[in-house]
Amino acid sequence: MSRSFAVFDIDGTLIRWQLYHAVAHKLGKAGLFAPGDFEAINHARMEWKNRRTNEGFHAYEELLVERFKATLPHINPKTYDRVIREVYEEYKDQIFTYTRDLVAKLKEEGYLLFAISGSPQEVIELLAAHHGFDAAIGGEFVRKGNVFTGEAKTPIFDKKAALEMLVQKFGATYQESYAVGDSASDAAMLEAVTHPIAFSPDQSLYNIAKAKGWAIVVERKNVVYEL
């Protein structure tokens, strides 16, 4: 008999920060970026934190991803794996109470639990296992021997396709299924399920959720608001 599922974005939805960013910042602090790159990333981050423009976060994120991908082929995979483990240990329980409790509730009810994220596969797998997920798809940075090739694969641009792969693999059903995400990249995934939840959404996802009548939930400090 097919089981219903619940699929969760991870960064900003289950975890209170961005794991991709956390990995990049640890590598930067270790002096592994090209000269000037880490300083440029930190400058963009402060531009976002100071809210100088509405697109500050996206500009910061785009720069971080660009410089991170350029740096990775020059990093020893053993160093990378050590940083992955450090990020996992630091952030594994820094989670939102709403999504933590929803994960526990749906698992108890027999739902399959899936995680789909653009953050590195290695840390997403660790995190998903820690919180009792059945499967996880993250970003893959291709290795050949003892080096990174510079090639990257990510589900971020088509999370619906990534979700369909998991549904097929597990023989799951979309009936009474859940999806929880916080950004516009999650919209197609949310639209595919019975119970879509926009959790602390960015402006784009908020507009989509409001137009479609989806549940909108915001967690701020120790209060959860259902809009």
Give a short summary of the structure:
It contains nine helices and eight strands. The protein has 227 residues and is an alpha/beta fold.
Strand order within the widest beta sheet: 4-3-2-1-5-6-7-8
Structural class: alpha/beta
Could you spell the SSE succession in H and E letters? Answer: EHHHHHEHEEHEHEHEE
Number of strands: 8
Overall pLDDT score: 95
Question: What proportion of the residues form beta strands (DSSP E)?
Answer: 15-25%
Using the alpha-carbon principal axes, give the shape.
globular
The N- and C-terminal alpha carbons lie at a distance of: 35 Å
Low-confidence stretches: none
Query: How many distinct helices?
Result: 9
Q: Report helical residue fraction.
A: 40-55%
**Main beta sheet strand tally, sense and closure:** 8 strands, mixed
The whole-angstrom Rg is 18 Å
Q: What this model shows, in words?
A:
This protein has nine helices and eight strands. It is of the alpha/beta class and 227 residues long. It has an eight-stranded mixed sheet with strand order 4-3-2-1-5-6-7-8, sandwiched between helices. Helix 4 runs parallel beside helix 6 (121-130). The longest helix is centred in the first third of the chain and has 16 residues, at 56-71. The chain starts with a strand and ends with a strand. 39% of the residues are buried. The model has no long low-confidence stretch (mean pLDDT 95).
